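Structure tokens please, single chain.
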Amino acid sequence: MLEFPRLWLLALTVAFALPAGAVEIKDDLGQVTTLTAPPQRVVSLLPSLTETVCELGACARLVGVDRYSNHPASVNALPKLGGLDDTNVEMIAALKPDVVLLATASRVSERLRALGLKVIALEPRSYKDVQRVLNTLGQVLGVSDAQRVWRYIDAGVSAAAASVPPSARGIRVYYEVASGLWAAGESSFMGETLTRLGAGNIIPAQLGPFPKINPEYVVKANPGLIMIGTRSAEGLAARPGWDRIDAIRHGRVCVFKPEEGDILSRPGPRMAEAAQIMARCLREKAGA
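Here you go.
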């Protein structure tokens, strides 16, 4: 009498088994997408994901990207599909992608799914996230050993750390990632790079990866070095009380050009290059 339920369960399992070669992808929003074959038409709406797709050897599969994706240079010839707040859904649909890669904060995920498109939301914010996203995109694209990219990143960051002189280690850094005093905290991938380089961070992990900081907080923390982008650096010393900060008093401020800012702000294949940029700042401003 027990044999029939067992046979029925086996038949049900077989009936609902994935087709050969198919994979199920669980994204950072908990959504599960089934891909019956590696996608040949990919839309990427986040620069770090665009760069990762290309580093995994699948750049030729991209058919459209967000307006901020600009590396490698070949993606500049692709249709630009807007940004986080003005994504062109109709244009994406017209491209007939097999899959759309986007940030978890994207506002168009449900609209794209309603159109019958396969959507995968991924947003790396830490070193661990970068490793996980590499694995996920390797599965999506059908690329074996996606972790080779991580091994390259890790080795590059270690090499950057080795270039930082002992005299620069331990200096406390304030890294302003965007105007309005948005900072890189210890738990962000930028903060983790600073830690690997032997630097301190005035923004503790408990404040989150990229918190908005009160200017008085920075004055009281009195960082020995400031890292900041060109767009935010204007009038830095004129901020109330900031002329008393050690970093400004001693000229220990690194102002990153926009192209450097792109590299530094993207948790992906160029993180080793970002570490080299930060290490150079530490050598030049704090290594004397």
